[in-house]
Predict the structure.
Amino acid sequence: MKQHHDQLWEITLPDDWEVEADEDSVSLYHPEGPGTLQISATRQADMITDDDLRELASDHLEAGAEAEAVALGDFDGFMLRYDTEGEYWCEWYLKAEDRMLFITYACALEDEGEEEDLVEAVLDTLALRD
């Protein structure tokens, strides 16, 4: 297992996963796997609330998506699952103290569930970083 350290968070990944980072987000994936995790983070002056997360996801929630409560590592919030145009998507809206993470996982619809346990295990290692 290997660690990836971002400015606001860190995560533990399988050794064979790749990491690509730019100024807006970090992409995590197995080179031969079906999907990609993408993580964006922000820090605010105040503590992040559930209302802040719901505001970020408002378009999906207003369209009828059902939020499922989650706790992953140091973070908690909710996730949404949906498919569109042949792709399967999971989105996580997470908070811890003054930090908010927006995480997506996308793969072809026919590959839905193939990496689900592994992705959840990886996300369960999310930790705050100062």
User: Anything to note?
Assistant: The longest strand covers residues 75-84. The CA atoms of residues 35 and 107 lie 4 Å apart. The mean pLDDT is 94.
